[in-house]
Amino acid sequence: MESKNVFSSGKMNRDADERLIQQGEYRYALNARVLNSATSGVGALENALSNEAVTTSTDLDFGTNPVCLGSVADDSLNKIWWFVRSDEGSYIAEYDIDNNLASFVLHDERAGNANVLNFSKSDYVQADVLYDNDNDIIMLFFTDGINEPRKINVEEAKLLSQGSFLESDITVIKKPPLFPPTLTLSTSGNTQTNNLKEKFITFAYRYEYSGGEYSVLSPFSEVAFQPFDFTFDYSISSNESMLNKHNSAAIEIETGGSDVVKIDLVFKIYGDDTLFLIESFDKSKLGIGNDTNYTVDFDNNKIYKLLDSRELKRYYDNVPLTAKTQAIVDNRIMYGNYTENFDLKDRNGDQIKIDFTTSVTSKESGTPGPAYRSVKTNRDYELGLVYLDDFGRSTTVLTSNTNSVYVDASKSKSENSLQVQINSLPPKFATKYRIFVKQTKQNYYNILPTIFRTDTDTGFVYVLLNATDVNKVKEDDFVIVKADTGGQKTTLVETKVLEVSSKDLNFLEAEDYPGTNDPPIAQPAGVYMKIKPVGFRMNLDDYDVYENNDYDTSANDRNDPLGFYGGLPAKTTGPFYYGTTSSAGNDITVAGTYSGSVYARLTIQIDGTGDGISTFDTFTWAIDYLDDGTTPGVSATGVTITPGVPITLADGITVDWAAATGHDTSDEWNSTLKPANPTYDNDSKAYSVFKGIDEVADEEIRAGTILNFEYDEYNEATQYWTYEFVSSGNYPNLEEWYFKSGAKPIFDAEFSEARVFFERGTYGSRTTSLEQSRANTAPIHLIIKSFGTQNNDFDSRVKVDNRFRITKRASTDELCFETKPVEDTTELYYETPQTYSIVNGYHTGTAASAGQIPQVTQTLTQGSTNLTAVNNVGYVNVTDPVASDDWDNFAALSSDPFSGDAYKLQFTLEPDDYTAFANYTNEQGAPGNGSFGFGQGKTITITQGSATLTVKVWYFQRNDITGGTRVTLFDDDQGLTSMSSTNYVSGSGSFANLGGDFTVVFGDAVDIAQSSTNPATIVLPYFNCYAFGNTVESIRIRDLFNAPVYKLDTKPLTNLQEYKKSFRTTSITWSGIYEQSTQFNALNDFSLADLNYKDLDDEYGNVGRIVPRGSDLIAFQENRVSRILVNKNILFNADGSGNVGASTDILGTVVPYAGEFGVTRHPFSVSLWGGRIYFVDERRGAVCRLSQDGIEQISDFGMVDFFRDNLKGVDPFRVLGGFDPHDREYVVSLQGTYSEWRPDTITCELIYDDDAPPTSTTSTTSTSSTTTSSTTAPPTTSSTTFFF
């Protein structure tokens, strides 16, 4: 039976029986279209035209079996880009419609994993174009769900070296600098100008890429701050050592690859989140090379631009690892259904259980005073590991059960470091790792009092608070006792502040004390902190007090106070070194005979440093005559050091140096020049001698020492002066204290400088007269010449009385209280200033510095005789074991110079260990039996059970014996006072049996790389205080109230439990914005701190496709379609209605469309045209259209049953959709199935162009069944295509 139907337009109806087909409908139309066409009128029935190939293999050779994976077009540019995978490689091609020209943008034919584009024939590519017409920049974004999201600048990509470009050339994410800047601090130029003086500054940098993207900041550097040696002004409670001794920092940074065009160098001040841009360095203009290092000098002498502080929280760009869909909305790139984070599996594929242990290493600080970095005591620390890929994407902070450590109070005088032993392997993805620290106790204050008084009736102690110390504590606070009058407290001791109040003069004395109108000061007036000592002592008996009274008159009725016999030779004291390079830079010799006639002061300072090749260190010198300005001083600057060639200064004084380099501009030397045979006016002047401590040649004036002076001149002239000084630092003797501590200006305000001088001498047989001597072995005295003068009149004689008292603690520790720290309850960890590499699947550390030797541990077995201690009384007759001339004398001796004359310790090392020992201690001379070495202050630790003996070595002797090398350590006058088997303790415990099991440890605490048999050992560069070896641990400028504080607050991260790779199938994330008017490009900026993601309801399945529509984003889930407002939110009213308002949220309110329609497993069926979006819903067997009035099932018009039946068998991702704007048709192709069809009476001949065979998407009219391979989609065995 033949059925005929006449129509001028029509539709296919597969739902109705063919006998019920209405006028204008048809059942089948294979390659037939009833529509308007370019060649026929309305109602014409014609064949659907096939595709025409506009390019051939001679234009673009894609190799064998090419498959088109996706395409994107830009109508404004009239260009098409498409993505191809063949057996040979991966390709991105461009077709210029206007010029009928096809070309490659990128092609990559490298084999296997080397193929960077790495397209797969089974995975489609979704692409979007962002065209900046202001600057004519075409950016192509594409993703395929298996590779990193990619982005290229089309024109720049064409210039890349095809087949050798890198992954980083095409990824959306941009590599940041992974290592922090390295700093070299120095003092240069005008040392009076120091803009780093009161600041804790740290540096970081970032890259600007050729596309205008900015990377995240590098890790921050160590702080650019180094304190002075301990100096404390007790009168105002100011720690003058807590100032930056350097005024300049050389900052070394890595320059990045060829795609990095600029480098932004920034800094921040600890405690403040403000970021300052030092400068943006243009590599091309400055001639800065690629992948090298570049150094910038910084002295903080400019006004700097600000950088957004959000960069501190942008720890890494969380660009997805893969993404199934993308869209460009509001000039942002958005990704949906993406993966983030990493699996924690090692190189063997095994799940990693993070395993590391944390410990503290402590090194003896040596002599109190020099500043060093340390980890604060009385604190808990938690550490965590963070792993990174090459793009800086990192894990959360990963912890173990043994990640915490407590640094106890006994280590407040040690140089403490945190150490991590990493036992587990790193994850396979990681190429770098960092170590983070969490510290829950932060801000605190130091209080260093000098005056306290005890109420003998109650036992309460009143501590005088100076200056701003009164603001540091209040009543009912608890303070920590770091050191009492007896010295360091090795356990945590706290005491309650019972009262803080002002007290009157002599407030503890009786009302009639002492019964006169001018009572002596028992308790000075001031603000006192009242405490009750329990578990610690505040006792004046712990102080050494030296007191002396003196009287002199200008008359001849008593012995001359300055008598001497035989004349005095000229004398040059010192030189005394004040600097930072310790023994390394203290290599000066001042010689010659001073020819001047008045007392003078010589100062030598380094004023320039050289490289030791073409330039050398220079110095300045000055001689100031102490005669009230009568004699002009002499000086010179910029004098070049020439070792071995004495340089003449003035007045017969010369200076020589051992080395031409190695000094620092903070190095200074001082000497006092004393004339020969000085004359005194004994008959007309009185001389008040403030006598030095008897029998002590050079009594050190330590920090905290109290010096009381009282000068009382009367009769002929009247002058009374009294003053109490508290020494702000350590000085070798009274004379150096006077010149260097700041005391001299105070004396000058009362006495002319020519009246004050220093001489040595003793009170011998003439007990009332000072017998002067220029010998260094005699005590030193401060002498003040009287103001008045006797004029040969007995009644006009000059009389002077004085009283002098020195009070100092027997302990070298500061009397120190510390306020309880502020608790930080946040769960934030902060990065330490180092990034470590992972090599061949193992953790590595930083390389040892020059001269560092990894620690060696050797056990000396029970019953052996290779460890002995010899306790001999006496000191070796070497005045300064560090001085080079003493070393020469020592090394020249042929036998043991210390035999019976000093303390020594002997042990035997195996040959390999001795080699390390010799390197560690810098052995002098040719190695061999009986040779001598020079320890340079290195420490050797001996342990036996819980006992620890630390020896600071200055010399050692080597003797080769059978089976090893015997080492004899000598420590002369560096603090080793006894080494008997019962009473020597330096650490803990005691050594009861020297023949027992011992362990010898020497070497430096350096990083040790992980191996297949050993864990990694990492010593952190982290520190959080500056210490001085006297229990004081400082974090503030000058330790003043509310002063700037050093506190680790750079880049924070948290610890998230159950960290693993995350498949965020129902989430959308977005970048920063692209602003074409300024070319501001933040399309790589994916900061989690901005909460740059939106989670959709996972009840409705995965996000299959996101599509921009107007100013909003349409999200297609498997079973829901939603409109997401961009930069807007809906504000709902009480009645349920809502108003749209502007919002700072990038993605705002989610508004689902009615009906549970979605794209199920076929996101590539989505097609947008003219504000309408077409898609296929497999689960509901429908073809849908989304328009202004919602979702409509367009397959309801005669195709319901057909699509319900035929969509069931289609493979996932194999329903393709597109819109033909010419014929205004939505074209959908079902791949991987056969449609049910049979011949109809309406048949048309299928006509092909021989040069243009049909394809699966355009070779049919209304229904087609073909077996040809698609050039726009992966091949399948069959496909069926429909037009709507």
How are the SSEs placed, and which strands pair?
Elements: E1 11-12, E2 25-26, E3 32-34, E4 45-47, E5 67-74, E6 79-85, E7 90-96, E8 101-108, E9 126-132, E10 137-143, E11 150-153, H1 154-159, E12 182-186, E13 201-209, E14 232-233, E15 238-239, E16 248-254, E17 260-269, E18 275-282, H2 283-286, E19 293-298, E20 305-307, E21 322-329, E22 332-340, E23 356-364, E24 372-374, E25 379-388, E26 404-407, E27 414-422, E28 432-439, E29 446-447, E30 452-454, E31 461-465, E32 478-484, E33 487-488, E34 494-496, E35 499-503, E36 526-531, E37 543-553, E38 571-572, E39 576-578, H3 582-585, E40 588-592, E41 600-608, E42 618-625, E43 634-640, E44 647-648, E45 653-657, E46 668-674, E47 687-690, E48 706-715, E49 719-726, H4 734-740, H5 743-748, E50 756-762, E51 771-773, E52 780-785, E53 798-809, E54 816-819, E55 829-831, E56 836-839, E57 842-843, E58 856-860, E59 867-870, H6 884-891, E60 903-909, H7 911-921, E61 932-934, E62 939-944, E63 947-952, E64 955-961, E65 964-971, E66 998-1002, E67 1016-1019, E68 1025-1027, E69 1033-1034, E70 1052-1053, E71 1062-1070, E72 1074-1075, E73 1080-1081, ...
Parallel strand pairs: 1-2
Antiparallel strand pairs: 3-4, 5-6, 6-7, 7-8, 9-10, 10-11, 12-16, 13-17, 14-15, 16-19, 17-18, 18-20, 21-22, 22-71, 23-27, 24-68, 25-26, 25-28, 27-67, 28-55, 28-56, 29-54, 30-31, 31-36, 32-33, 32-34, 32-54, 35-36, 37-53, 38-46, 39-46, 40-45, 41-42, 41-46, 42-43, 44-45, 47-52, 48-49, 48-53, 50-51, ...
